[in-house]
Amino acid sequence: MNTKKLSIKDWDPSDRPREKFKQFGSTFLTNAELLALLIGNGSRDFNAVQLMQYVLNINDNDLNKLQQQSLEQLIQFKGIGTVKAIKIKAVFELCKRIQYNEIKSKTVIKDSHSAYKLLAPVIQNLPHEEFWIIYLNHSSRLIEKYQLSRGGITQTSVDLRLAFKRAFEIRSTALILAHNHPSGALDPSDNDIQLTQKFKIAAKQMDLTLLDHLIISEKGYFSFADQGLL
Q1: What is the pLDDT of residues 142-168, one digit of tens each?
Q2: Which residues contact 204 (CB under 8 A, 6 or more apart)?
Q3: Nearest-CA neighbor of 115 among 177, 166, 160?
Q4: DSSP 126
Q5: For 178-229, what is each residue's pLDDT tens digit?
Q6: Contact 136, 142 (CB under 8 A)
Q7: How far apart are CA 113 and CA 102, in angstroms?
Q8: Distance CA 190, CA 98 (A)
Q9: What SS3 state is found at 51?
Q10: Is the pTM of this model over 0.85?
Q11: Following CA atoms 209, 215, 219, 220 in sequence, which dihedral angle do they give, to the nearest 10 degrees?
């Protein structure tokens, strides 16, 4: 009995991912076949399609779960080396950027809840603190959400100069500050209050408008503007 592994080259041409793509288009390919085209080849035990079927199966055939795999986790799969893992992470990053650009072109931040919905998926459940800025134009349309700094469990350093430099680079006229509290607490600290006032004073001097400062945690959010603290 011949137990030799069939490579993709041994398949009928109509079943090969590359030929299927050329003849029928990308929509006719499975997720495993598309990923197989990306990584190029398989391992000693599996061809590229079988390898990606296995990786997807371990992730419950859920692309979102696969996207959340770190580089180190992907490399643990036999046949997925550093280069293949980087390719997989890169394509997911490109997808995120395409999606973000589509959202950005349509997004108007009209209140604290709109800002919260934009940033909650990014920082709500992080184990460390991050400080972000939402930059808007004069019509309150989103220009960019920007990570200003990343810190430890309890705090992160913030450079006002970098924040305003970015505002001028992208021609923003208004901004919303946001950071997360990994502890879950939503009450602003004395440092949060002082920092907000520094931003407010500096923004006014530069003809920019500070619209709000959000504190975000797994419990929800706190808005300086809603609480009359701006």
Answers
A1: 999 999 998 865 556 799 999 999 999
A2: 210
A3: 177
A4: -
A5: 999 999 999 999 999 999 999 999 999 999 999 999 999 999 999 999 999 9
A6: yes
A7: 20
A8: 39
A9: helix
A10: no
A11: 0
Residue 219 token pair: 């419990």
Instruction: Name the percent of the chain lying above pLDDT 90.
Output: 67
**pLDDT in the model for residue 146:** 94
d(CA 8, CA 11): 5
What's at 21, amino acid-wise?
F
Q: Which residue has the tokens 């061809």?
A: 47
Q: What is the CATH number of domain 107-223?
A: 3.40.140.10
Residue 210, Cα to own-chain centre: how many angstroms?
25
Q: What is the pLDDT of residue 1?
A: 38
Burial class of residue 89, CB neighbours in 10 A (0-12, 13-18, 19+): middle
Tell me the backbone φ, ψ of residue 112, rounded to 5 degrees. -65, -35
Find where tokens 């080396």 sit. Answer: 81
pLDDT digits (tens, 9 = 90+) for 34-49: 999 999 998 888 889 9
Encode 116-131: b = buried (16+ Cβ within 10 Å), e = exposed. bebbbeebeebeebbb
Pairing relationship of beta strands 220-223 and 130-136 according to DSSP bridges: unpaired
Strand partners, 136: 142, 174
Rounded-to-integer distance, Cα 227 and Cα 146, Å: 24
Between CA 188 and CA 229 the distance in angstroms is 10
Q: Decide if 147 contacts 160 (C-beta within 8 A).
A: no
Beta strands in the chain, from DSSP E residues, in sequence order: 130-136, 142-150, 174-180, 209-217, 220-223
